[in-house]
Design brief:
The chain is of the alpha+beta class and 482 residues long. The strands form four sheets. Strands 2, 6, 7, 8, 9 and 10 form a six-stranded antiparallel β-sheet that branches. It has a two-stranded antiparallel sheet with strand order 1-3. A two-stranded antiparallel ribbon has the order 4-5. Strand 4 and strand 5 form a beta hairpin. Helix 4 runs parallel beside helix 7. The longest helix is centred in the C-terminal third of the chain and has 31 residues. The model has no long low-confidence stretch (mean pLDDT 97). Bound molecules: adenosine monophosphate (AMP) and magnesium ion (MG). Adenosine monophosphate binds next to loops. Magnesium ion binds next to loops.
Length: 482
Amino acid sequence: MKFNFDNSYQTLPESLFSKVLPTKVKSPQIAIFNDTLAEELNLDFSKVNENEIAEIFSGNKIPDNTTPIAQAYAGHQFGHFNILGDGRAILLGEHLTNNNQRFDIQLKGSGITPYSRRGDGRATLSAMLREYIISEAMHYLNIPTTRSLAVIATGENVYREFTHQGAVLTRIASSHIRVGTFEYVRTQTSLDELQQFTNYVIDRHYPHLKSNENPPLALLDEVISKQVDLIINWIRVGFIHGVMNTDNMSIAGESIDFGPCAFMNAYDPRTVFSSIDRNSRYAFGNQPNIAKWNLATFAETLLPLFDANPEKSIALAEKVLDSFDEKYRSKWMQMMCNKLGFSLLQDNDLDFIKTFLTWMNQQRADYTNTFLALQGEQFQSDELYSSNEFQYLYTEWLKRVELNEGGLNEALTIMKQHNPVYIPRNEYVEEALESASQKNDFSLFNSLLDVLKNPYTFKEEFGKYQYITPNFDAGYQTYCGT
Ligand code: AMP
Ligand code: MG
């Protein structure tokens, strides 16, 4: 096994990172290792024993040919600007796959760094397993996301409200460059360095923009499109990120940082699970607004590069930012039509979508299962779906899909590709995490992972994962900073 490291980030100005090694841990042990992902990365661990794997991915043993760093960044957290940085993470290196795809290999929970502020640099086993299972679920839902290669239990305690087992997660990402990284570069370095950094990001993520007449402006436009696509995907499956601070928004358009995130069951755009989101800033239905706010912050960091004349620069930025609403609206419409199996937009489609969503909201109907009920294979006997109101909507829907060129069959084919049968239901995530992190029993965790690896295909034996205890969500809360 050999990493193919090529650490390009270290060619950037030194103020953007610090060379720092992980802090060694007492007795590292594999909690979970992702063989499939290792293979995709062209990393062959078949001849590496488990102790050695645990040594490498706990940060105890640094592979050859790399100099680990912690990255500096800033960010607006709940609207307030702060200087941040990898406070508990270390970039082991940038690994190139056989076809030259570049991935950050990052250890999270690996000890303190110059950016740790008052934190201990550590992470709990439960929180890292949570990131593992949710990020893998996102991947199999076909949503751009960072991924998880391993969780290593450290054999040390981590102190939060209670005492927890410590762990280190190995996170794989196209990069860890965030909107907040641009905020750092813009506020803490020179204009030359901003230009250099922007060129680096374009080279690394969007090389086709280099020939554009205004590459920084094209970058803004491209990042907007990527974020619109991402949020639309979150809305499609009912995902609530929970802490969409600008430091948790990736320039590559991947879902990143699965702290207090959760999936919505009963449909309500106001749904919030995060214990610290008291003003519902990051509620399910507010995610597009926040994305736009974050992108405006991103645009601000690039202003000096759009044009030498500040007024002209602002006008250029505003024009591109204004495209967000239309991009979002048309992608949202397309996504909802896919969920309902409507091909080629018809005049009344928007009316139907609104009526359907309003009914779901009023009934607090399950977001995932209601689309499956339309698909007609499941839930026919549920009281809610045999009600007159739903049956009326169903009849209207049937009339509409008959207008597709391929009628109902075409609708069902489209719907099956866009409506998951299985999502990580909060109740099952919690029980799996509890028994893995407190009893070292991974059977529930592995069963849930199996279900989430094929989220679009119904399997009789997975049936229970479609239901949660009624009202389980009513008192459900997720926690940050774990
Ligand atoms: P997050 O809420 O996980 O996105 O983290 C926000 C910031 O706090 C980032 O700069 C993290 O690196 C830092 N941070 C979170 N937890 C810890 C910790 N236990 N020790 C040090 N820094 C932390
Ligand atoms: Mg973060």
